[in-house]
Structure formats: C-alpha cells, structure tokens
Design a protein that fits this description.
Number of strands: 11
Mean pLDDT: 92
Structural class: alpha/beta
CATH class: Alpha Beta
Largest sheet: 9 strands, mixed
CATH topology: Stationary-phase Survival Protein Sure Homolog, Chain: A
Order of helices and strands: EHEEEHEHEHEEEEHHEH
Shape: globular
CATH superfamily: Survival protein SurE-like phosphatase/nucleotidase
Radius of gyration: 19 Å
Strand order of the largest sheet: 3-4-2-1-5-6-7-11-8
Strand content: 15-25%
CATH architecture: 3-Layer(aba) Sandwich
Number of helices: 7
Helix content: 25-40%
Amino acid sequence: MDDLDVLLTNDDGIDATGLQVLYDKLSRVANVTAVAPATDQSAVGRAISHSVTARDHERGYAIEGTPVDCVVAGLSTLVPEADMVISGCNCGANLGSHTLGRSGTISAAVESAFFGVPAIAVSAYIPAEEFTEESIADIEVPAHQYAEAAQATEFLLKRTHTGAVFDHADYLNVNAPITDRATGEMVLTRPSHIYRMDASRDGETIALEDNIWGMMAEGQVPDEDGTDRQAIMENKISISPLTAPHTTEHHDELETITEDYPAN
C-alpha cells in the first residue's frame, strides 16, 4: 500500500499520545500526513473558522483551529491527494448516537465524507475505575494502552481502502478498549440510543452531567446486544458504519402536511 495517502487528524491536539501512536503504526503501511489542531479541541463538534494558521510540524501540519478546519484545509490544500482520513486516536470513547454531533473526532470524519473521501474515526475507552471522569481531560494515557485501537485501525485501513465498504457507509466509528482490557474481538455495531444527560442547579450555576459514564463504571447500562456501548462493556472493538448527510426515508405523513400548507 505504498501509494496509499492518509490524512491523520484528531481533536486532542497534534502532540497527543493517541495521534502519535496511530501515526507510527499507520506509517508502516501508508504515506501519513498529520493535519491536526495545535491545541486540544475536544467536543467542539463541527465548528469551523474563517481562516486558520498552518505551521510545519514533524508529522505534518499543526493547525490553529478545529478538527473540521483541519479536514477542510487538509483535503483542499495541504494533502489533496489523500485517499483516506483517519481521525484519532481519541482519549476517551465516542459511544452512542448523542455523541455524534458533539465529538471533534467524529466531526472530522463527517467533514471528510462531504469531500467524498472515506474516513475512520477512532477512540479508546478509558474505564472510569482507572481514570476518573473529572480528570480525563488532564490524564496521560500510556502509549501502550492505544495499541489495540492502533492495530484495529491498521487492519481496517488495509481491508477497506479497496472494495465496497464505503459504497454503503460514509465513515466508520471505531471504539476500542485499552490494551490491558482487550479481548481481541471486533464486532459490527450500531450507536446506542440510551441517553442519560442531566442538569442540576445551584443558584446561578447549572451543572451538566452525562450520567452514562457512571452507569458504565457500575456495569448497569441497559444497552441491547449489537450496540457500540455494549461491545465496549464486553471489552470488544466496536465498528459502527455510519452516513454523513443525516437524511431520512420518504415521509408520507409529512408530505401530506406540507401539501396542506395554506397558500396566500
């Protein structure tokens, strides 16, 4: 695959350990150029800038901007020859349908899909009993804990850059356990629809909390078999094939409603 060109990005920043591990792993089988945020841009979703600064970096380019900025700048000017976009490896899982629009990691893959370039978003699940939710933005996960995610990404890159996988999906959302927990099994999944966001008020302050992480730590998430979160709870690698345009099937009832709109 010496002729395969990969644009590597993330939302944790170009110097994040997860990106470094993927860069080293994928460089064995492809020409990899990192086009990633200069600083942490976690949970910025599909935020985009009017202009960005691109600085040379030993792995490619550090962008003063968001993950979406990186993909637009990368595919338009910096790495226009890219055959695939890989986004990750994120420090923390991106599980469930409610995370799809929030995650900078996934948003980079979505943006790539609009360019017509297939993409893989990769995240590593950090168990709460090893790293508390409050400290996840500050922790340094050892490089070896990303090994399972990196191996899965290399495998998927090799197997999907040709063939029909991306005829039926715009991008893949991959979640892997840390290496010390991994069973080595990969399963096809769908995003969970379990939603447990909550808010509590203390005077003028309203605290927002995703209670799903605590439920996962206690092993009490009511997910069905076949969901991404259930796979991770079983220490398996979850692969969810997804589409980017967010369209729906033909809606007969809504069509009737629009036809009934009163004309002036």
